[in-house]
Give the backbone structure.
Amino acid sequence: MSTFKEKLTDSTQKPKASRNSFGDHVAELGAKFPQIVVLDADLSKSTQTQHFAKRFPDRFFNMGIAEANMIGTASGLAMSGFVPFAASFAAFITGRYDQIRMSVAASRANVRLIGTHAGVGIGEDGHSQMGLEDLTLMRSLPNMTVFQPGDDWDTTQFIDWSMKHEGPIYMRLTRQNLPPLKRTETVLKAGLQPGVWTVLNPEDFDAADVALLLTGGTLEPGIAAADILATKGVKALLVNANWIKPLDETLVNRLNDGRLKLIATVEDHFSVGGLGGAVAEVLTQRGASKPLERIGVTSFGQSGTPEANYDHYGFTGAKIAERILRRLG
Amino acid sequence: MNSNPMSRFTWPQGNISSDGVRKALRQSILEQIAAATSGHPGGSLSLVEILSAIFDGNFEHGFPAGFVPKTEVTSTSSKMGLVRENLSDGRDRLVLSKGHGVPALYSALSFLGYFPASELVQLRRLGHFLQGHPDRNHYDLMEASTGSLGQGASVALGLALGERLKFETKKIGRLPRVYCLLGDGEMQEGQVWEMFMAAPKFQTGNLLCVIDYNKGQIDGPVKEIMDLEPLGDKLRAFNWTVHEVDGHDVSALKAAIAKSPITARAKPHMIIANTVKGKGISFMEHPTQWHGAAPKPEQLEAAVKELWGSTQPACGRLLEAKV
């Protein structure tokens, strides 16, 4: 029997960091959409806006290490009719919260805020560079759409969708590579639907014991955890929880109504207020019939290799499986 | 006494920088704030000549063809009057970064025919488009939602870059100017200095900032809270063209604007307007006392009387006199 890893991820394609998917795709779209402008705060080689900068220098604005001004300038460009993508590390861009609150969200400015280097997965640079609270901050703001792509397809599809959307957006991207997910023809054809998550193994929906809601960098270890759980006789349902806002409330309610014993969220983000918090809000609104295990980061991060960090903070397949088994008792 | 005093208000004849209109602007600012029983008269009154000089110059409103600025001052069917769709792309923009001074902007826009003057006394009412600070979701001709200080500066830079890009790619036929009105207290925000560094890099010669240097902020004189001096030297060192003028002298302000040409690629322009907080009403001319205090009915009457020599001036009253 094939493993979840073999079944769900495409080993014929190279893993790609979502920051690279973003950088490549926005540079491609620049030719098609003259209204796209890109802003960066001296991190274009990390956020990968460098490709757009090379191709469209007149529409690229390097604002220097001044994120507050970058966000406000992006807002002004949006009010001038452009579609600005303003990029920096998630920690630095969402750290300018008042500027986002006022000049972007409350202003309903058509700005795409791009936060790269999400979570402890960035590794050696350590805590000051890790965006760990960005989802909590961004999803609390009215008007804001919040998305964390699971792989290259998610990223490019979302950017395409964003070009048809009017309103502020926050997209959270990883530094580390993400393995591409396999998708059925039907899913590929339908494309990304707003607020709709993908169940990776829908055939297991009625037989699963636990639902693992995975997002961004935790998809790969979450899938590995499902393989470990299977050896212990625990069936996992795997979900790519890429839309943080709007959340897939329909699916959360279906999971709550099903025969599962446990719902778990796994995110490389503080466990307060992110995906886990958002799911908890939906579950309690109607009355939770399932316990929720929120697996996330509970302290500021530190330096270490990305692998060491993922192990230390509980994001390996083994650690996730262990936590689920413990919770199931 | 007239039972419907609002109908008696009429803007004086003349252009916006004329003596009579400026008095009517000051009166309507105070009547707005008195009606709301809250607001910021000091920093609104100090803006009157700055707004007059801008709007009496070559400001391109982008009014629709055949638009006649209305003289009517009473609400009819459309309370809001003009909306964004009525104005042409390529118009000049005004960002009021010191958002608390918005009663002055509302009065000026009403005088210019954007909406009926009778709406002014709805300032700060729930659901009304005249919000306490500029809010582009309630009133889309507020170019930026401001009030959290420093932020309008960056939005103005973005507008200047965007409008220039549209001009240089021939999407619009004229290069619009973006005016940004800054408060002096606001200059203490780091974000404005980020913008002051960025605009000369991008050579946005179509950006003109005016600092309403009225020397007062909530907690005390600017000099004591966080001194800005030497302000002109700092801004020149940041590579702006800088003109320092008497901010209550309309012709000096207009001359400084004229010396700051709208250019696609040149240094951005700064006018330091030395003003008096609460200007025009002797008992309000104070660095702090009238920052955020609404005049009581008797104080409003005293102010109107000082402006015109009568509590029933020829332009009429927005609010019924309560003496």
Observations:
- The two ends of chain A are 27 Å apart (CA to CA).
- Chain A has 15 helices and 14 strands.
- Residues 18-32 of chain A form the longest helix (15 residues).
